[in-house]
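Each record in this resource describes a single protein on a pair of labelled lines. With that in mind, the following record should read easily:

===
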Amino acid sequence: MKILVTGAAGFIGFFVAKSLLDQGHTVVGLDNINDYYDINLKYDRLKELGIEKNDAEIFNNLASSSTYENFSFIRLALEDRENLPLLFKAEAFDKVCNLAAQAGVRYSIENPEVYVDSNVVGFLNILECCRNYNIKHLVYASSSSVYGLNEKIPFETSDAVDHPISLYAATKKSNELMAHTYAHLYGFKTTGLRFFTVYGPWGRPDMAMFLFTDAIVNNKPIKVFNNGKLERDFTYIDDITEGVVRIIQKPIVKESDKENLFKIYNIGNSKSVKLMDFITAIEESLGTTAKKDMYPMQPGDVERTWANVDDLIADYDYRPNTPIKSGVQQFVDWYKTYYGPLT
């Protein structure tokens, strides 16, 4: 198949694009390479896929990969209403995997406008292109943050998600509502994936895994919110990638099967890990103890996340299962390789 992967220079998008390429699909990667975090990390991910920095910096022009003959890349923003349809028209994609978004719960409190531009306006443009250019299946990233103040544990996709507590979460819920509307009106399949605290090699520098490791290595204190009384369903990147790719590759339902045109799945490790245990795993991997500064709960955060993945098991025979210690060690090993030997 020919598949558009948006957010291809991002953490999850990079791994999904690589996995699809390794399985022989033709992939066009799209990313706007914004400066929310170090753009050099984004360029280095693209370099792993055979796209050089100079080629990636050219807007609205497809660059060919030197590593994968079936991969090309375009630097383009989802909210570009003029050029995005031209890309769809020229490339005739079979499926679209939309992983591009402005990420980060706390950043959404400080910069709300960019979340609406990318996550709402940009997603609408994706939906419009899908309906106008006969896309068979749209797979898109949602987030566990949509569960918000939900107190029922573990989180199930059938739970009400009416109380998001960050603008980021609100934009992700809006994506699900918009996808439902387009699936109903125009008869193409949409599948939303609620990711649970993704971590691993090539991860985002604003995520806990990276922040903690970087601080410990540089002998700086780590910020521990809610005095450490937090739990997260930490999910290793390979498990997320496997789930996404399985859903992209599975044959779609018939258009007459209206009930299955819109689907939502949790992708999480289906275990809730205490934040202090997560920190201990990092300390053990680094062979040192972290200096810890305790802070109160941050606006937009929740105390606990935990995914029920029964639907994923039933429909795709898949359950993420990487143990936290193994995943943390693999991140630390990558960090040492990417940034050089630790002093």
Remarks:
- The radius of gyration is 19 Å.
- The first strand starts at residue 2 and ends at 6.
- Residues 2-198+235-270+306-322 form a domain with the Rossmann fold fold (CATH 3.40.50.720).
- The chain has a mean pLDDT of 93.
